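Hey, I'm writing a tutorial for new members on how sequence and structure tokens pair up, and I'd like a real worked example in the thread rather than a made-up one. If someone can provide the structure for the chain below, I'll link this post from the tutorial.
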Amino acid sequence: MLANKSSYQYDIVARNTYLGIPLQLGNGTYSLTVYEQVEGTSYTPKMSHSFSVSLQSSLRPFTASSVMSDFSRGSGCVSKAGSLCSGLDTQDAKVSAVYSWIVSNISYDRALASSITKQQIDVYLPDPDRTYASRKGICYDYASLMCAMLRSQGIPTRLIKGSTPLGYHAWNEVFFEGRGWVVVAAFRWKEIDGSGWVMLDSTFAASGMSPEKILSITHTKQKTY
């Protein structure tokens, strides 16, 4: 299934299940095309449809489950997020609790990263509950898990795919409206400059990289989910 608005494409393959359509580009006309697998990685279009979108809030798509960060009330990671955030009154505290837990409990899966780099895996989609259960993943999994856990608490969170000088990467952005200095994991992360979105990189943090070092690395966005 491919959906696009203007020149932006969402590379999503439908596998006999309904997948939520991401609307993160906001209001406007979207085009949806459903493809049928011919063989291997060859697909043929079966139907297409265009529809108009008018969102009550531009942040709403970033508090919902999506194919890149699929979760439900019964998800293990959602239950954990609820436990971590129980009794916490501020968004800063909730983000700090989730971020700190991921950084301390999820290990980088070098074997999986190698398989993808060597193209032994053609299509890879993150699964927050799989990452939560296995306690390991690649950057894509870190970002998807954090996205699911924070969104389940009503906190607008983006999953960003892009690159750094170290290579292909994925990370998160969290929306803090009018918060001034945002405090996450006991350090002052960023002063809100009007956009409200704060970059958080749990993969690099889990590797032991300092906040100052993370912020010094150029993160180049390619796609936002």
